[in-house]
Amino acid sequence: MSTVAPSIPPKAFISYSWDNAEHMDWVLQLATRLRHDGVDVVLDRWDTSLGSDLSLFMEQSADIEFRVVAIASDTYTSKADNAEGGVGYERRVITPTLMANLAGHRIIPVLRSNPFAALPRFLGAAKYVDMRAPERYEDAYFELLQDLHGMEATPKPPLGRNPFLLHPDSEVRSAVSWSKGRYVSPGLSGTVQFDHSNDDGQYVIGAGDRSFTLAFSVSGPDSVVIYHDPADIRTVALARDATEPSHIGDASQYDGSSRARVIKTGDAAVVSNVNGYWAAVFVDEIEVRETSLTGEPRITFRYFIPETCTPEFRPGT
Fold first, then answer.
1. Which of 49, 84, 101, 200 can pair with 79 through a Cys bridge, CB separation 3.0 to 4.6 Å?
2. In the 3-class helix/strand/coil scheme, how is the chain assigned residue by residue?
């Protein structure tokens, strides 16, 4: 799947239950925002009027071109399981097309007003977007939008070449041990410990548009230098005494005008990449050859990459 959104707007039918006025307004707001962000949303409040054939509307909206965003509130789950009302009818209409295209992942469950995370039985154990907590709404919305536009949350890396065909038998083990694949941590957060005297001091965190090639060099017994030399790095900056993402705040406030920054133990590097994403790198320990138990230099750092393309590191992240 490409990391570039397709030019043809994706279509989505929002399936939900009329729980109450507040819930209906919440759905309307979600649908409005999705249309603003390029998703061709079909919603009963827009696409039907008095006297409309609701059954025909549901059947047409279950067409194979549409993704289905199922707002799985407690009421929705109950009505779907008990085949009640419009939700029950939608389940009967949607299920045959879903079963005919199981590999298509057409239905996206969205949890809302659902304390036990209960999905309708016809959705099985489908992966869902959790929009129940207001403080997580923005991240959940981005996850939903990303999926509707066909963007990869965690892009699959390119397939490398077989090392047994690239090297003589006697060299394969050492070639695998010191290949660049060893110096990659694709998650959005994690803890890394590596010998920064190897692979030109480079280590890749994240993946796809949210990847950052960190380039280090030794500066002293308690500090390293981090550079913006790699092609995917736009700026590097120093965040003094920052040990957690919540300490960063607005990452764009830090001075990223220099090619390199000296980072000491207990400080953080704030890094932006050419795709507009940001990362915070927290240096926890630096070992030089003379003090290392293994006899090799080593750096230990934690990192955090926000899911959205924003410099804001919010409290609690």
1. 84
2. CCCCCCCCCCEEEEECCCCCHHHHHHHHHHHHHHHHCCCEEECHHHHCCCCCCHHHHHHHHCCCCEEEEEEECHHHHHHHHCCCHHHHHHHHHHHHHHHCCHHHCCEEEEECCCCCCCCCHHHCCCCCEECCCHHHHHHHHHHHHHHHCCCCCCCCCCCCCCHHHHCCHHHHHHHHHCCHHHHEECCCEEEEEECCCCHHHEEEECCHHHCEEEEEEEEECCEEEEECCCCCEEEEEEECCCCCHHHCEEHHHCCCCCCEEEEECCCEEEEEECCCCEEEEEEEEEECCCCCCCCCCEEEEEEECCCCCCCEECCCC
